[in-house]
Protein: Multidrug resistance protein stp
Organism: Novacetimonas maltaceti
Amino acid sequence: MPRDTRILTEGEGLHGAARIQAMCAVALSVLLALLDYAIANVALPTIGADLHVSAASAVWIINSYQLASVIALLPTAALGARIGFGRLCQIGLVLFIVSSLFCGISHSLLALSLARAVQGVGGACIMSVSIALIRFIYPHAIIGRGIALNGVMVALGVGAGPTVASVILSVATWPWLFFINIPLGLAALVLALMSLPRTPLQHGAFDGLSALFNALAFGALIMAGDSIAHHASAVQVCAFAITGIVAAVLLVQRQKGRAHPMFPIDMLQVPAFRTGVSIGFLAFVSSNLFMVSFPFTVQNLFHASPSMVGLMITPWPVGIMLVAPVISRLSDRVPATILSSVGLFTTSMGFLALYLLPQAPHWYDIVWRVGLAGMGFGIFQPPNNRIMMVTAPAGRSGSASGMVQVSRQCGQATGAMLVAMTFGLIATRPSMRCLEFASIIAFLGMLLSASRLFSDRHGQA
């Protein structure tokens, strides 16, 4: 069917086949961006050996993608508001396809890390506007369905990464982890060109200086945390920390009084939005404490084979997908605060049950606990994201969508750093301690979520 070329208003939404096609384009784009983030983790030893670099150096194959993605999220969200969310998603897909080709043909760590950084920017272009696009694709009354489907794609991309990587590496060499993105990316690009809606454009020049301060603030603070986790010198930690703090102060000062700030300090003054960002951060700290440490638990403590690692993690995305059809409908009818609180409590109990596993558990003892935690996360995420999107002022979908992703990626980065610190500081069963910390942090997120019940203004968001 012909593409609807009208400029849509927020909450108007598409209908029928047009909505299905547009959502398929967003879903496939999000899946690609997150699958590729997770898929390289499993292959790090293989890639490092092939490129003749140490394990510590090979980590930059992951770090370069994550760092570039985090520092690009808010600037790309601001750019998307000026050139159109659909167009920015298309640009992101082109960057992703081209950089995937260069990743596959790289023969040095430097070349691969640079290509991965470009991939991270492409992923940021996609992720920073994904939920903003959903706000235009779905009518306001059923926006929860679109957000729930987006949450499924996030879970599937992160959770299925290790399994997909294991399958590819069993039949092909590591460059095919990246070559596989090319046909999938082209399919997503064709769908995006054909179906993504036109959105209103924000006027005004792009603020390059704010983008620089943003990159220095997020980049330096993440590197400071990474330096602490890997026991770097105090001088290095302080240098990164001071640079990040100074850049953050300059960024906030520059954003004050602007009608459409790149770093949305005005939106963070809205209690429901600010609390949603904080809860999302805590939730993803908790989930990454589990995701990063759990392979060590399965292999080192329970003596499972490496091929079983992906299978043991699979119940996490499966649990999220199982509850998605129900949550997609409930999130537009039941107060989001109740759903997100119940979800995080369930996730916390799932992690606690994993921490309390017997010394020699059967496989099903592990599977149902991981699945329970995943179901809780699937109940939590769409309603919390919905609160953030519906409390954002009109015309600020890009900023809200960017902050949803910032809370996710900063939470994931912090979770990974906490795993590294735990393994470095605790000698006895550190992977189980990570599960304990994951349960505690998820429970704290639940308490913060439940505190919204006492807000008359935003409790029904």
Observations:
- The two ends are 35 Å apart (CA to CA).
- The mean pLDDT is 84.
- The first helix runs from residue 16 to 51.
